[in-house]
Design brief:
This protein has 12 helices and 13 strands. It has 362 residues and is of the alpha/beta class.
């Protein structure tokens, strides 16, 4: 089959990682695959099969902003090539595809839903909030074939839109995300965080939690994984080691360098960093962001705290830093959990769904 995988940009985000992996798997299975992105939005990416073409289409809009992102996606309409199947995973990408459908182009579509998009993209923004939520909801009402990445997203799709979706769990590359043999609890206490300025990812709670944690633990260090230094954390600069990773190896090293990983999302479809942290042997404290429940079980392989309670989160992190036996138990259980999720399983399950679609349309 000729398959187009449509993204709103090509970068190192977790959602993009999943679609790049899907493209690689489909290419390895013998299909002709291209990645289609807006012009000028090839920023960074994970490893891409050399047989996969990257097509930049639409208007070369360089400015940033919500409305610009929408216009950039809309302008892709005439550039997405006619294909046997289109795969996408972001509500704005539904707009050019729907327009193509009206003209009889690219009617076979697989929507890989990676989170509760009306909530994640429509609830927390200040401007365009209602429009984004309505557009995200509209994108999920189409008669596509749906797959998703977690039990939470599957149940959300069925409960809200009566859309059936098969789960294809993301994986972890254990050749990269693996513990070091000299792992020990005698190092300086430190907490890794992935910092993004969005309320869906818990930005305000993260700032509050780190502020309170540094009061409880004057010796704690922060491992901040971010594409840039964030001025909102400047008061903690003396405690922060900034990591700007450009590869999975660098991400894995950042997770390994910390005693604990703290995930602070308000809503999460799956929570790939939680799984990657477990795979390197770094125990996790996470907000209960729904999708993470497929990976993290409170009290068995990590700690779940309610979203919004920065005081409780800081105390939970402090308690785990002080409890060496529980830390070790969560480390061992987390490593066992990570063994259950692999990209090989992801590849097999996704290719199977796509080839079932091809047989159904034959």
């Amino acid at each position: 089959m000729i398959i187009s995988v449509v993204l709103h940009q090509l970068d190192r985000s977790g959602g993009c990682r999943v679609l790049v992996q899907a493209a690689n798997a489909l290419s390895a299975a013998g299909h002709t695959v291209s990645l289609v992105i807006p012009s000028g939005r090839r920023l960074e990416t994970h490893r891409l099969d050399e047989r996969i073409a990257v097509r930049e289409v639409g208007l070369p809009i360089s400015r940033r902003g919500e409305s610009v992102t929408f216009l950039r996606a809309l302008s892709m309409c005439s550039g997405i090539p006619a294909s046997d199947l289109v795969v996408f995973s972001y509500f704005l990408c539904a707009v050019p595809l729907r327009l193509q459908n009206l003209f009889g182009v690219n009617r076979r579509v697989l929507y890989f839903v990676q989170e509760n998009e009306p909530l994640a993209f429509g609830t927390f923004g200040q401007r365009y909030r209602s429009a984004k939520k309505a557009l995200a909801s509209w994108s999920l009402r189409s008669r596509y074939v749906y797959v998703c990445n977690s039990t939470y997203v599957r149940d959300f799709l069925w409960g809200t839109y009566r859309r059936r979706a098969r789960i294809v769990f993301p994986g972890v590359d254990r050749r990269v995300f693996k513990p070091l043999p000299d792992r020990g609890e005698s190092r300086h206490p430190s907490v890794a965080v992935v910092t993004r300025r969005t309320e869906a990812k818990g930005w305000s709670m993260l700032v509050a939690t780190l502020g309170r944690l540094t009061q409880l633990r004057p010796d704690v260090q922060i491992v901040a994984i971010s594409p840039e230094r964030l001025v909102e954390l400047s008061s903690l600069d003396a405690r922060i080691a900034w990591h700007h990773p450009h590869s999975d190896d660098e991400v894995a090293e950042a997770f390994r360098s910390a005693t604990i990983f703290f995930s602070c999302s308000r809503v999460e479809g799956f929570g790939l960093p939680v799984l990657e942290s477990m795979a390197v042997g770094t125990p996790v404290v996470a907000t209960d962001s729904q999708g993470v429940r497929d990976v993290l079980e409170h009290g068995r392989n990590g700690v779940l705290v309610p979203y919004g309670d920065a005081e409780l989160a800081a105390k939970a992190i402090d308690a785990l830093l002080c409890d060496v036996r529980r830390w070790e138990a969560y480390r061992v259980a987390g490593l066992a959990t990570a063994q259950k999720f692999s990209w090989e399983n992801f590849d097999r399950d996704l290719v199977s769904i796509v080839e079932e679609m091809a047989s159904a349309y034959a």
